[in-house]
Amino acid sequence: MRKSVIAGAVAALTFATAAPAFASNPPGTASSGSADFAKADQTFKVEPLAVCDVNPDQAGTVTGSSPAVSKNGFKVGETSSACTTEVVNQAELLTKTTSVAKGKAFELSALVAKNGPRLKIGEWSIRSSRVPRSASSCWG
User: Fold this and answer.
1) 3-state secondary structure of 48
2) What is the per-residue pLDDT for 140?
């Protein structure tokens, strides 16, 4: 039971802002995660890492990157993101957007007892795409 609670907490901490598919990120935005937790009466906050936003007005890729971060009980290696806009139909001004966030060397020990289990993830990647069906689908 304890391990599943820890895993659920980690998923919430790590991927709450990991891709546009989640409610905490607006459409067309990607980040490699963030964290906000308390340990021993101290609050720790890691702002969103490797943030990128698609450029809806121009085809191409916008990237973001962040160096490794280490806070008391939270570690993550280098992270990156890429937000791509591709013209699908020039006549109808339709675009396809894809957002990808990647990272490595994640470790969370903030939510466990001193000698308890640590959650470690070697590498992760999350992807979200949006492809409109027609010009009318963009407006409802």
Assistant:
1) coil
2) 40
